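Translate sequence into structure tokens.
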Amino acid sequence: MTNTNGTGAPVPPPQGDSQYSAPAQPAQPGQPTQPGQPTAHHAQHSQQAYYQQPAYQAPSAQPAVPAKKSSGPKTFLLAFAGAALACVIALSGFGIYNAMSGSGDSGDSGSSTVIGSTGNSNINAADDDATLAEAVAQKALPSVVAIDVYTSQSAGGMYGYGMGADSDSSSLTQSSLGSGVVLSEDGYIITNYHVVEGGEAYKVTIEGEQYDAEVVGTDPSSDLAVLKAQNASGLTPIEIGDSSDLIIGEWVMTIGSPFGLEQSVATGIVSATSRSQIMNSQTDGSTMIYANLIQTDAAINPGNSGGALVDANGKLIGINTLITSYSGNYSGVGFAIPVNYAVNIAQQIIDGKTPTHAQLGVSLSTVNEQIAKRYGLAVNEGAYVANVSEGSGAAEAGIEVGDIITKFNGTTITSADELMLQIRALNPGDKAEVEINRNGQTETLEVTLGSDESTQAATQQQSQSGGSIEDLLRNYGGNGYGSDGYAS
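Result follows.
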């Protein structure tokens, strides 16, 4: 295969089947690791791919069809679906202006909307879990909402499929539900994109009172969205914490509506930080990127999506999003999007901006030992540069088609997706050191990361029109790629 820009540089061909499988990640501290893989060795050899929970229905009079046994734990999104007792999960992803590195700037200083509580209170409870949990719940529960999503039966149906020609297209039915977190007194609410995806009408329940709501904006690739409760005032916004200085082992609480059970809490600890994952949507084929997730053993179940992960002071530190599980329900491994990142996305949406992601400006393909041997490449692992976008940070730094990126900011790069995760953990305008191998010679270049703002609108438009992953990647300048086909 050759680059379609006419450069003539060889591009590593697809490896195996055309479906994306979760990449192996090194188990070194600080490097992106995949949720659910017990060891690096297991990750390297596992044949199972992470995917969204397809759907399940609560027990009924109908005989159940036994599910196929899984060869390993799966990563699920956690929207709860069905008008009463059925769940359906929709996929989503990651990436935006201020990454999870802990930047304190929450948005445009000129914004008229203040996100989060203006207070800064700490909880002083005895060293007793029950007492602490009671105090934290009392503080944070008023800021967590239940979200009901309604769709036309003919448009979506219970599991996202049409209900037949006899369906009443004007009838809206509750099709899914999730959780959200109040960001402002006048009703701005942050949640997961997969909670609101495909909805035609929304209702939110806040402290026992129900409001109609509308979607202000979304960023599908980050799996985040903002709703606005209509005619709301005097709400209790959550107090915003800091996800940049979390300590493994510190106490946390999850709050949300598991299985539609509103205002539910569960406690646990921060199990790990800096967990990363790339997933593909089963609804529109789009690529979703999660970087630097918070791992917790506090219970997260279907319906918790979009809810709050708070610390021992009742401050928001994450938005509950994923679990790794054999069953699709809680198994002790859940993940939340860090608040520093999530709030910056929300601020951009509220300010009417298009959320943006850091971008290197290249199309990539993974290099492995087999590919290196076949094409006579100088290194056995890395990210092969199949295309360089004109005017991008990569182009200005001197990165060329045919280069193999082997390190990024000191982190060894073993695959294209690993490089993408590293890039998405930074902000547009950040500088990074990129080590490349060019014709057997190693060079280190300094790159100023760009922004994908100019392509985001086209990407979202393509996604809404049902385009393929290949179409989306072309919007990012991905004109030549192998099986990975990532544009960063």
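Note: Residues 145 and 209 are 10 Å apart (CA to CA).
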